[in-house]
Design goal:
alpha+beta, two-stranded antiparallel ribbon, 4-stranded antiparallel beta sheet, single chain, about 140 residues, about 25% helix
Length: about 140
């Protein structure tokens, strides 16, 4: 089994097919989107492929250590994840092909008008320890 992160972006990825910003969705469209995500996650719980998920609030700050006895520095001149990352789901699957299949399915979550968003998801494998050399 291999763990993958399916990362949902606000910006930075190519535009989805159904590119209507979420703030313009009706309450019913928003509810249908969330229900799709919940149903998708519940199905993965049943197959043993679900590890975790979390949506992110838009608030946030960059924090950096700035030396002994000095307060941390917050914010910066960089693109902020609060503007880029909407949330994520972690899966544990048998193959890369299965991870791609699930990411494609998650990309079909409904958006405006109840039509699939066809959003791009960033799919990243978790870093694993390098193999050990047998003596």
């Amino acid at each position: 089994m291999a763990k993958y992160l399916m990362l949902k972006h606000y910006r930075g990825a190519p535009d989805p097919v159904n590119n209507v910003p979420m703030e313009r969705w009706t309450p019913e469209e928003f509810s249908a989107h969330i229900q799709y995500m919940n149903d998708f996650a519940a199905r993965l719980v049943e197959t043993g492929e679900f590890v975790g998920e979390q949506a992110l609030a838009p608030e946030g700050a960059w924090v950096r250590y700035d030396g002994e006895g000095r307060p941390p520095v917050t914010d910066g001149p960089f693109a902020e994840t609060k503007d880029l990352i909407a949330g994520w789901m972690i899966i544990d699957v048998d193959s890369y092909e299965r991870a791609v299949e699930l990411a494609g399915e998650l990309s079909a979550a409904p958006g405006a008008g109840g039509r699939p968003i066809h959003e791009w998801l960033e799919l990243r494998p978790f870093l694993t320890a390098p193999p050990t050399i047998a003596e």
